[in-house]
Design brief:
The complex is a heterodimer of chains A (212) and B (239). Chain A has 212 residues and is mainly α. In chain A, 83% of the residues lie in helices and 0% in strands. In chain B, a hairpin with a 6-residue loop joins strand 1 and strand 2. Classes of the chains: A mainly alpha (212), B mainly alpha (239).
Chain lengths: 212, 239
């Protein structure tokens, strides 16, 4: 049963190659457009993270590798890549594409968008890299009975520190996105929505007062 | 849709095969295991946990111990679990018959606990370790669980009572640290964690590893007696 699931895991390589090839040939000759096209940049990072996390996941299933990486931070690392790196980046790509079209104005601060992009990419990369490398080192030391267990656990401390730092950078980057959205709201909605909302409130307050 | 039936059956077969492989297969293979008699000894295995240990399992669950501790011993060819003294044989489905949920764990930020009741039989050691891991394992990453203990006036205790932790000068004079019922339950659970009974599908390796003292170096297990960091119990008159 275990061998069966390892084989199935290995078969994941096939769709992975298809996705990678599809992605590559879609973008072939168009790579110069990535610069200055933020949704595209976000999708490229997301796609790279997807491929990386899938490759790591497949490798994690191979017996000699899983003997090392099992019960370590390795799995946490490729889960980071899949969730934050792939899903979140793809979602941001969609966000950056849709919002200007819905509001029919460009993003208020291009600087903030850049901060968000580089912060997210750097933070996720740092965090995932630290977890994957730390997990590998932890695994090797865990499988060396000469190293005491406390030492094995201590090995991972700096890697966890770097990973936390990476997540903090990601958090700051999300702050830039939130600030950008707030600016956009102030620009676009403050003039039209706020009077409407206050109108509702005063009317409902008046109604409540009339009842009372 | 041109190939509707084909598509339907394709999806059906895909889902059915994964259901077969992931749910039905294991269920048929190990789903009907029950307590059985070990022929060599005539004893039943696994025996249900005592009531206090069952409560302790809930404490173990509520504190999230399984986030950092696994309860599974890997076979010799995969890992050094045997050499670290975490077990003498790999764990199999039979070992978990009485556990629900099963605290298999997925990360080893702490050592494996599948055989902690065999490795460390001293309840006082476990209590001290829960109160402050640094007392018994210097350098440990485990958090303290002081809320499992009660700090109360030493005078309230009956003379000769031995439930207070032997912390010596670490407690302010006149007070003592006494385990709450949760701590006692958790320790009873830890002591009940044993998976070394030889089974047909998981026999003890031959010759049995009997170099236990030599292995103690490579684990973070400590000698059964409290180390010299921990003073003898304070007599109630000492305040």
């Amino acid at each position: 049963m275990i061998s069966c699931s390892i084989a199935a895991n290995g078969l994941l390589v096939v769709p992975l190659i298809c996705v990678a090839a599809n992605f590559h040939f879609t973008l072939e000759g168009q790579f110069h457009k990535v610069k200055g096209n933020l949704p595209l940049a976000f999708s490229v990072v997301g796609m790279v993270c997807f491929l990386l996390s899938s490759v790591l996941r497949v490798l994690d299933g191979v017996k000699p590798i899983s003997d090392v990486t099992r019960f370590t931070y390795f799995a946490a690392g490729h889960t980071h890549l899949a969730l934050y790196g792939f899903f979140a980046m793809a979602a941001f790509a969609g966000l950056y594409y849709i919002v200007p079209r819905l509001t029919q104005v460009p993003w208020p601060s291009a600087q903030m968008v850049r901060v968000h992009f580089y912060g997210s990419a750097l933070g996720i990369g740092l965090s995932a890299l630290a977890l994957v490398l730390g997990g590998l080192l932890q695994g090797f030391r865990l499988n060396n009975a000469a190293v005491s267990f406390v030492d094995v656990v201590r090995t991972t401390v700096p890697f966890i520190g770097i990973s936390t730092l990476g997540l903090f950078v990601t958090l700051v980057a999300q702050g830039a996105l939130a600030a950008n959205l707030a600016l956009l709201w102030r620009q676009q909605c403050a003039s039209c929505c706020v009077p409407v909302l206050t109108g509702w409130f005063t009317r409902s307050a008046a109604a409540a007062g009339g009842r009372g | 849709m041109n190939n509707g039936p084909l598509l339907f059956f394709g999806i059906l077969v895909t889902l059915a095969s994964s259901f077969w492989g992931l749910i039905l297969g294991p269920q048929l293979k190990i789903g009907r295991q029950e307590i059985r008699m070990i022929e060599a000894t005539g004893a039943l295995y696994p025996t249900p946990r005592p009531g206090l240990a069952q409560k302790g399992a809930e404490v173990y669950r509520s504190l999230g111990c399984a986030e950092c501790h696994t309860q599974q011993v890997r076979p010799r060819e995969s890992a050094t679990d045997f050499a670290r003294g975490w077990g003498q044989r790999r764990t199999v489905g039979q070992d978990y018959l009485h556990d629900y949920p099963i605290f298999l764990g997925s990360q080893r930020i702490g050592p494996d606990l599948a055989n902690i009741g065999r490795r460390q039989t001293n309840a006082l050691h476990h209590l001290l370790h829960l109160y402050d891991p640094q007392l018994v394992t210097p350098g440990s990453m485990m958090p303290r669980y002081p809320f499992l203990f009660e700090k109360r006036k030493a005078a309230a205790r009956k003379a000769g009572g031995s439930e207070a932790l032997p912390l010596g000068a670490k407690v302010e004079p006149g007070y003592e640290i006494v385990p709450r019922p949760e701590a006692d339950a958790l320790v009873a659970y830890l002591l009940s964690l044993q998976a070394e009974t030889p089974l047909f599908e998981a026999p003890l390796p031959l010759p049995p590893t009997k170099a236990e003292p030599a292995q103690a170096e490579s684990t973070n297990a400590v000698p059964a007696t409290p180390t010299n960091e921990v003073a003898a119990p304070v007599p109630p008159s000492a305040k």
